[in-house]
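A reminder from the course coordinator: this example appears on the midterm review sheet, so study it carefully.

Given structure:
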């Protein structure tokens, strides 16, 4: 992606996220002006403050360098963020609350050093008409009319600023801080989750050719194939489960071929799909290409023990000689860790491309699952609701498209359970949405099957004698 286009996209994205106060002459002028915070700085602050969205309330160069103006626009607005811009520094303070009759709490003072945030907690602060913002220990005092900031030596040392207690500034902005996940959004996520659950529970494979769709999970060792199965099962069980073993062993945990049928609830009926877990791909000791082909065609039995030195053959005792359509793989999902896409070796890229070519010959159109997006830098929990609009994720999708050739529409985002003990509806929606896409991809496979491979020729086509 050209660098100029990238920054243009960031500018557009930032412009659409800032909301403003009720209309006045000054706020109408604010509407036509962008904050001086860069997109990267805003994302860093969102992460630092636990996932917030910022709404511009006041900009001194527009509304005037006046304490009264700042106070009138920002008081009783809930948590606010004050940002000061000097010629050399960007610093500010987060005030958790600024309403009457509220218990004063510690504030967070910060400064940017490059793209990193240096911060410290300071004592309770006060925001009052005609009185500058300061703390009880005078760690910080903003003098708006004179465009100066006074700081204690201790504060200067904590923020690693130049040793000047008084700093001149050029601009002051104040933002209202709101949770990215408000009650309305959480309710919407819950409704979407229920709709997805209903759609998957009532799903029927195309043309009723099979009772359950088989989805094969493939990918490098340690990318989260088994964890994705656990995450999907957790949604339908109503609690986090760990049936498939996961771990950090560099050689991978899964050494067997496993086919997992998931029940809807503890005693419910089996759902219309089977997730097939396999040994991880590796440059040297991973899953053999021959084994992949046998899996696709339905010859490999459940619990088959992989041997990277010796792929399965028809001589194996449990080899399935005459697999039915229901034994075959109907959709393949390549699983990659979003944080390590750029580190894929040339050997791994070549192996994935070769496997994809073989799948195309079998009529299977693979998709990609990007895991661990919630641990990516600059991604907050609130971003997961509209994850496909996040620029860091878009860049990852572009990288997969560039390296491996998958269509952007086939690159899906999921979020597995790692250390959580409770279900997260946002993660569940991501995983269920990806699962629904895979079921649709399987339908494409079934609809495109030649009649001689469906097993329904005799049932639906007239015989030669009947034609006569």
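Designed residues:
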């Amino acid at each position: 992606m050209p660098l100029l286009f990238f920054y243009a996209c960031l500018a557009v994205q930032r412009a659409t996220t800032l909301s403003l106060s009720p209309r006045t002459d000054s706020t109408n002028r604010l509407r036509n002006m962008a904050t001086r915070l860069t997109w990267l700085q805003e994302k860093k602050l969102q992460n630092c403050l636990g996932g917030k969205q910022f709404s511009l309330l006041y900009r001194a160069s527009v509304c005037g360098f006046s304490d009264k103006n700042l106070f009138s626009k920002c008081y009783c607005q809930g948590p606010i963020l004050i940002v000061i811009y000097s010629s050399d520094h960007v610093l500010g303070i987060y005030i958790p609350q600024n309403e009457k009759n509220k218990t004063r709490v510690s504030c967070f003072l910060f400064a940017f050093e490059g793209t990193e945030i240096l911060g410290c907690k300071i004592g309770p602060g006060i925001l009052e008409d005609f009185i500058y913002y300061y703390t009880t220990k005078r760690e910080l005092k903003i003098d708006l009319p004179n465009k100066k900031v006074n700081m204690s030596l201790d504060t200067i040392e904590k923020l690693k600023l130049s040793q000047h207690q008084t700093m001149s500034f050029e601009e002051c902005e104040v933002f209202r801080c709101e949770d990215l996940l408000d009650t309305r959004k959480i309710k919407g996520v819950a409704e979407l989750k229920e709709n997805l659950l209903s759609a998957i529970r009532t799903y029927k494979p195309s043309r009723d050719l099979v009772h359950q769709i088989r989805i094969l999970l493939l990918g490098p060792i340690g990318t989260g194939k088994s964890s994705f199965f656990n995450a999907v099962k957790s949604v339908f069980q109503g609690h986090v489960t760990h049936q498939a073993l996961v771990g950090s062993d560099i050689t991978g945990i899964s050494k067997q071929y496993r086919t997992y049928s998931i029940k809807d609830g503890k005693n419910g009926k089996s759902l219309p799909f089977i997730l097939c877990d396999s040994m991880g791909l590796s440059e040297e000791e991973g899953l053999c290409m021959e084994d992949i082909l046998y899996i696709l065609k339905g010859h490999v039995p459940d619990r088959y023990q992989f041997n990277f030195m010796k792929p399965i053959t028809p001589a194996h005792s449990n080899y399935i000689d005459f697999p039915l359509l229901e034994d075959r793989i109907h959709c393949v999902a390549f699983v990659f860790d979003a944080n390590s896409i750029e580190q894929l070796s040339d050997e791994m890229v070549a192996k994935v491309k070769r496997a994809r070519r073989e799948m195309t010959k079998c009529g299977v159109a693979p998709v990609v699952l990007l895991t661990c997006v919630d641990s990516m830098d600059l991604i907050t929990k609130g971003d997961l609701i509209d994850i496909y609009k996040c620029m860091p994720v878009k860049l990852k999708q572009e990288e997969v498209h560039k390296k491996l050739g998958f269509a952007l529409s086939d690159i899906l985002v999921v979020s597995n359970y790692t250390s959580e003990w409770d279900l997260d509806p946002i993660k569940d929606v991501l995983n269920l949405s990806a699962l629904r896409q895979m079921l649709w991809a399987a339908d494409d496979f079934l609809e495109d099957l030649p009649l001689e491979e469906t097993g329904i020729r005799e049932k639906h086509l007239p015989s030669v004698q009947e034609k006569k």
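Residues 425-447 form the longest helix (23 residues). The chain has two domains: 18-179, 183-453.
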